[in-house]
């Protein structure tokens, strides 16, 4: 493979993340600590301020409510920093593990933010700066620029480059490494997991202890039938050969990851996460105690990351792939990477695209999934559609339409965790006009209010939302309507109609206090993606495999379900099993 003349497919790739936060509150200094002499061990020669020694706290807004930052200083330097927030725990861990040591070591607030965690990173910086202001530091103190500047370097050589570190990418890397391939995984964010990390980590499978325990199973043929029945599309629309392969390998891969990687799937408890009640979901055990914690998917990610590392896979964070590299024949021959400190190319015999969906790319949403235009993305910041952009520039065909979504609280909490799942607790849902409805997407701004009262079974969780400023509480329905800005008479009529039906058997709304929970419809998967064959090789518009290019997970989800998300466990499960299918094909092509 010749690399002297390279062509670069440089799709418009956004850096990801949301806009920076602003504003401070609750910054009164707390009790002073004992005076400490000297600089922290290993600290760089940053600014030496004149400060009042002590412990200072600041409360600043972050993505999931307020963050409290605590900073200990002596007369001249920062001694320690800590933070507490409701933000997603693996993102908090990435920010704390990266930025806090950098701030203390360099004696500066101006350090690298964590890619994909803009809100949390910015909140930490603002909180520390507020604490330093309280201590008497000036705006120029602790402001030296210690952010990393990337420089151009040379070319690296690998057998396979995997783009993306969600379940599909990690599984592909693991399976390839087990076959002897030298594999590098490139993750644009500052933490592993992609959208898998925002999920509950559930999968469906066949022919395992789990299936024996719960009394459900499927065959390759019955899985094909299920997908057609769930999606209600014409025969020939779906990639039946790929669906059958997924069914064939699912049980073996499920058990492999349970026993070799420690994947935390529950083999006893299950839910039927699909409308046809045919595919039981084996959920990932919770990393924390809250049921359906927004992060239980990270227990799965953690197990796959550890296993990949044990097998010698090179896992890289802050490594944004900016395009595919082509050889003189115009075939895929690697990737171009912009890392935190270096910009470089990778020569790779094969490239696996596991970049997730495109919910964060408004242009692609409007083109390929207009149904999702009113949905609020509940995905990683990296859901920019990179694979589709690069693939189409190579002539790749697309397939699938539609979106997987669910009722949720908002962009930050989605539909999982204590906060997100409370969106389901309401007795009645009304639109901004105060009227009950069938389809939230047909309502003004695609938004609604869940109405509940003091007799609701989840009242403690609803009160928790009120405490966080995520729900509204009032002593009467009239007062509640006024607080949320909807017509008083319309809300009263909707509640009356609801109570009349509840009298036939249900829970009425009538016990004060009354609550309004703002809700929306969030998207967790888009079904449009690149067309693939039975081995997950990407196909062009003529139906030919594009040499050396493969796709896994949400990138090729449209091949399996096309227009309707078939149920919980489908995206993560299929992506994990596709890793085995891809590795088998690549091993055959490379003679591994």
Helix tally equals 15
**Major sheet summary line:** 9 strands, mixed
Structural class: alpha+beta
Average pLDDT rating: 88
Instruction: State the distance separating the first and last CA atoms.
Output: 18 Å
Sequence stretches where pLDDT stays below 50 over 5 or more residues: 1-39, 287-294
What integer value in Å does the Rg equal? 26 Å
- The coarse silhouette is globular
Report the helical percentage. 25-40%
Number of strands: 22
* Residues in β-strands, percent: 15-25%
What does this structure look like?
This protein is of the alpha+beta class. The protein has 15 helices and 22 strands. Strands 1, 5, 6, 9, 10, 11, 12, 21 and 22 form a nine-stranded mixed beta sheet that branches. Strands 13, 15, 16, 17, 18 and 19 form a six-stranded mixed beta sheet that branches. A three-stranded antiparallel beta sheet has the order 2-3-4, covered by helices on one side. Strand 2 and strand 3 form a beta hairpin. Helix 12 crosses helix 13. The two termini are 18 Å apart.
Task: Name the descriptors.
592 residues; alpha+beta; 22 strands; 6-stranded mixed beta sheet; 9-stranded mixed beta sheet
Structure in a nutshell:
With 592 residues, the protein is α+β, with helices and mostly antiparallel strands.
């Amino acid at each position: 493979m010749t690399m002297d003349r390279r062509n670069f497919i440089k799709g418009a790739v956004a850096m990801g993340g949301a806009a920076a936060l602003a504003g401070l509150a609750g910054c009164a200094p707390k009790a002073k600590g004992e005076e400490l002499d000297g600089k922290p061990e290993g600290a760089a020669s940053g600014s030496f301020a004149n400060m009042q020694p002590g412990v200072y706290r600041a409360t600043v807004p972050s993505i999931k409510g307020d963050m409290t930052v605590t900073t200990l200083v002596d007369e001249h330097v920062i001694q320690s920093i800590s933070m507490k927030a409701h933000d997603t725990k693996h993102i908090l861990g990435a920010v704390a593990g990266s930025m806090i040591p950098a701030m203390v070591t360099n004696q500066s607030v101006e350090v690298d933010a964590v890619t994909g965690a803009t809100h949390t990173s910015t909140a930490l910086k603002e909180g520390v700066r507020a604490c330093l202001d309280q201590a008497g530091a000036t705006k120029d103190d602790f402001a030296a620029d210690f952010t990393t500047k990337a420089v151009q370097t040379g070319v690296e050589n690998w057998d396979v480059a995997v783009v993306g570190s969600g379940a599909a990418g990690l599984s592909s890397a693991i399976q390839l490494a087990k076959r002897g391939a030298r594999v590098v995984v490139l993750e644009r964010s500052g933490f592993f997991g992609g959208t898998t990390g925002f999920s509950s980590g559930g999968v469906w499978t066949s022919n395992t202890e789990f299936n024996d325990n719960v009394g459900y199973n499927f065959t390759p043929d019955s899985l094909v039938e299920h997908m057609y029945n769930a999606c209600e599309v014409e025969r020939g629309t779906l990639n039946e050969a790929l669906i059958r392969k997924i069914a064939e390998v699912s049980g073996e891969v499920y058990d492999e990851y349970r026993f070799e990687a420690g994947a935390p799937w529950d083999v006893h408890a299950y839910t039927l996460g699909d409308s046809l009640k045919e595919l039981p979901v084996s959920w990932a055990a919770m990393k924390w105690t809250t049921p359906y914690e927004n992060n239980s998917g990270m227990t799965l990610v953690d197990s796959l990351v550890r296993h990949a590392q044990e097998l010698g896979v090179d896992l890289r964070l802050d490594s944004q792939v900016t395009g595919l590299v082509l050889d003189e024949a115009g075939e895929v021959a690697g990737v171009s990477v912009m890392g935190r400190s270096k910009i470089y190319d990778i020569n790779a015999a094969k490239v696996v695209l596991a970049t997730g969906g495109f919910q964060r790319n408004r242009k692609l949403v409007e083109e390929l999934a207009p149904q999702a235009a009113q949905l609020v993305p509940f995905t990683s910041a990296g859901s920019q559609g990179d694979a589709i952009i690069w693939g189409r520039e190579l002539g790749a065909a697309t397939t699938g339409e539609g979106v997987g979504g669910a009722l949720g609280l908002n962009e930050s909490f989605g539909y999982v965790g204590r906060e997100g799942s409370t969106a389901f607790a309401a007795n009645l849902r009304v639109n901004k006009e105060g009227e009950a409805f069938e389809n939230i997407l047909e309502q003004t701004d695609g938004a609604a209010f869940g109405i509940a009262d003091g007799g609701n079974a989840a009242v403690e969780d609803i009160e928790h939302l009120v405490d966080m400023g995520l729900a509204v509480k009032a002593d009467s329905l009239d007062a509640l309507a006024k607080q949320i800005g909807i017509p008083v008479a319309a809300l009263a009529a909707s509640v009356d109609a609801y109570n009349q039906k509840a009298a036939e058997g249900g829970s009425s709304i009538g016990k004060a206090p009354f609550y309004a929970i703002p809700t929306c419809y969030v998207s967790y998967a888009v079904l449009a993606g690149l067309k693939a064959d039975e081995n997950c090789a990407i196909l062009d518009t003529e139906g030919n495999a594009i040499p050396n290019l493969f796709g896994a997970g949400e990138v090729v989800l449209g091949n399996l379900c096309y227009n309707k998300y078939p149920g919980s466990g489908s995206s993560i499960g299929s992506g994990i099993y596709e890793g085995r299918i891809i590795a088998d094909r690549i091993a055959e092509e490379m003679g591994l």
